[in-house]
Design brief:
The complex is a heterodimer.
Chain A lengths: L8 H23 L20 E9 L3 E8 L4 E8 L2 E9 L5 E9 L7 E9 L5 E7 L2 E9 L4
Antiparallel strand pairs in A: 1-4, 1-6, 2-3, 2-5, 5-8, 6-7
Chain B lengths: L1 H19 L2 E5 L2 H11 L3 E5 L14 H8 L3 E4 L8 H7 L4 E4 L28 H18 L4 H26 L8 E4 L5 H7 L2 E4 L11 H14 L3 E2 L8 H10 L2 E2 L16 H16 L3
Parallel strand pairs in B: 1-2, 1-3, 3-4, 5-6, 7-8
Classes of the chains: A alpha+beta, B alpha/beta.
């Protein structure tokens, strides 16, 4: 490789200038007031709010062979067998989205043909309690919709 | 050998004694003390710092109270801003959990001007029966956190208490149904009954502010007299253990009668102590004064 051109005064000066130029870039970065990069656009608002703590109160007027509560995304909140008539409470984390929630209630109320009812009360933190019920006999499956005002 | 046997027996006795020792719980509100007793049963020893008949609006912990809280596993406060000293208390009581029982209960917002409190949460959440049921579970879980072996008992006690409150709520609904729609207005000395009014479909006309001791200007009193006249209500309610002088003058000026006092802050004594007694007392007082005859 012929490197004679490096020995010429012009090439030497160019080399020095190029080195100074390269050095100047970081110095410029350190000393100049460059505008901050524009913030990236905000993330779109989530479609579902964070999970909300809640108390679930279940009231069965008659015994049930099985009872299951699921959210819209298929999460099982409660899965009980041989449920006695009466009331019970448990805690749950609920995906309340845009102040509303749908819970599917499935119950096997046995062979009796007499109508009975299952009541579900939901008490999310800082929100009013709301009660829905399912009425019927045999196997029941019903979506229960809950809506709240913004807390 | 004998020595190790003896120390084993002593250790077993000590463990049994510790297991049997009730959990000490301090309460900054008479109704939080009541909740702790209802839910905790024999497994807790409740220190009611305000004391039966005491006014939680006026209470400020003294050094002796701080020492009793330090010796407790848990301190129960009503929350929602009722205890303005709570931040200082958190600093002083390092290691002792302070539970604001009402913090997750949905708030009603104060709208009345002149209290300096408009826009803030109304702290009197205990006037809602449903709120007290929720609070019982909050207390049960807080107690279980400190005494896991008692969790089943605490939750069962909360459930039993809740069932009793549900019956009481039904009784109240049927009693208050005797009050005609035109009379479902509570003119009270103390702006404390918004949660009750919401649950049982009343409207509130409060003479004083959040605290019964707050003064009223002559203009505010004139407005209240006018509001009472316009409402057509036949009775107005003084507050238990408070001077009824202002209410007497409003009653005279508006041609209404002075009803039996309402208990606003759980500060009833004797047979009126505790939530259930307070609630029954208030429902009876309202029904007697406003029911159709």
């Amino acid at each position: 490789m012929d490197c004679n051109f490096l020995r010429s005064p012009l090439a030497g000066t160019a080399g020095v200038l190029a080195t100074l130029g390269l050095l100047a870039i970081p110095l410029c970065h350190l000393t100049s007031h460059r505008p901050l990069p524009a913030p990236s656009p905000l993330a779109p608002p989530p479609t579902a709010d964070a999970l909300t703590s809640a108390i679930l109160r279940l009231k069965c007027l008659a015994p049930a062979r099985s009872l299951r509560l699921t959210t819209e995304d298929g999460t099982i909140l409660l899965d009980l067998t041989d449920v006695a008539a009466g009331e019970s409470e448990c805690d749950a984390l609920l995906p309340i989205s845009h102040n509303s929630l749908e819970i599917s209630l499935q119950a096997d109320l046995g062979t009796s043909t007499a109508d009975t009812a299952v009541f579900l009360t939901i008490m999310p933190d800082a929100r009013d309690a709301q009660t829905r019920f399912v009425l019927g006999s045999g196997s029941l499956s019903q979506p229960l919709r809950f809506n709240w005002q913004s807390p | 050998m004998r020595k190790s046997f003896l120390s084993g027996v002593l250790a077993a006795f000590a463990t049994a004694a510790a297991a049997a020792a009730p959990l000490q719980v301090s309460a900054l509100h008479p109704l939080m003390a009541d909740l702790a007793r209802q839910v905790g049963g024999d497994r807790v020893k409740v220190v009611d710092l305000v004391g039966e008949g005491g006014n939680p609006h006026r209470f400020e912990p003294r050094p002796g109270d701080l020492a009793r809280m330090q010796a407790s596993a848990l301190v129960l406060a009503a929350g929602k801003g009722l205890e303005p000293y709570l931040n200082r208390l958190h600093d002083s009581l390092q290691g002792v959990r302070v539970v604001e029982v009402g913090s997750n209960i949905p708030s009603l917002t104060l709208t009345r001007d002149g209290d300096g409190a408009a826009g803030t949460p109304d702290p009197h959440w205990w006037h809602g029966v449903e709120n007290m049921r929720r609070a019982a579970r909050v207390v049960a879980l807080a107690l279980a956190d400190k005494d896991p072996a008692g969790k089943v008992d605490f939750l069962a006690n909360a459930q039993t208490y809740g069932a009793r409150l549900e019956l009481m709520q039904r009784w109240a609904t049927s009693e208050l149904a005797k009050v005609p729609r035109s009379q479902r207005k509570l003119v009270t000395a103390h702006n404390a009954f918004a949660y009750f009014a919401k649950e049982f479909d009343f409207t509130v006309i409060a003479v004083a502010g959040l605290n019964a001791e707050q003064n009223n200007t002559p203009q505010a009193l004139a407005q209240t007299i006018e509001a009472v006249k316009l409402s057509g209500v036949k009775a107005i309610f003084p507050e238990y253990k408070a001077n009824a002088k202002v209410l007497e003058s409003i009653a005279a000026a508006s041609a209404t009668t002075l009803a039996a006092p309402l208990i606003a802050d759980g500060n009833g004594s004797g047979q009126d102590a505790g939530f259930e007694a307070m609630f029954r007392h208030n429902v009876q007082s309202i029904t007697q004064a406003l029911a159709a005859r």
